Amino acid sequence: MTSQGRTLPKRLEDFLRNWSLPRQFAGEDAASEAAQSEGSKGLRPRLEEADRIGTSICPYCAVGCAQLVYAKDNQVLHVEGDPRSPINQGTLCPKGAATASLLANPDRLTTACGGRTLCYGSRAGRWRICRA
């Protein structure tokens, strides 16, 4: 006996039945359900639950790469490059791809400084307003 109480021949039989290549070699169409395994049948796209898709521009450099922002309940799920943009053609650099982290950071500044400069306080570990 092996793992989960199944013998090696039984495990091999289950593997071959669930593996898509033997079904495709037997003549089933590769674009049909023959290409699906039991595990892949239950998978869903992670962006399927997004209720809004917005457009944005990457905040990091002056190139101006276009972004698609996927959100659900006003929370950003994912940021990716906009393939319609002639500038970046759907690609983002690593900093641009991390824009979702910037938006979800609880320490992100959410208000303007009103002409004052901001300093990072070494003691409290928070931003504080300083006189210029």
UniProtKB/TrEMBL annotation:
Q: Indicate where this protein is primarily found.
A: other
Occurrences of domain 4Fe-4S Mo/W bis-MGD-type (ranges): 51-107
Cofactor(s) listed in the protein's UniProt record: [4Fe-4S] cluster
* Signal peptide range: none
Pfam families tied to this protein: Molybdop_Fe4S4
Write out the ranges of the annotated region (Disordered).
27-46
The superkingdom listed in its UniProt entry is Bacteria
Q: Which InterPro entries match?
A: Mopterin_OxRdtase_4Fe-4S_dom (IPR006963)
Cited SMART domains: Molybdop_Fe4S4
* Keywords, ordered alphabetically: 4Fe-4S, Iron, Iron-sulfur, Metal-binding, Oxidoreductase
Instruction: Report the subcellular localization.
Output: Cell envelope
Q: Which family does it belong to?
A: Belongs to the prokaryotic molybdopterin-containing oxidoreductase family.
Alphabetized PANTHER family for the sequence:
FORMATE DEHYDROGENASE-O MAJOR SUBUNIT, TUNGSTEN-CONTAINING FORMYLMETHANOFURAN DEHYDROGENASE 2 SUBUNIT B
This protein's name: 4Fe-4S Mo/W bis-MGD-type domain-containing protein
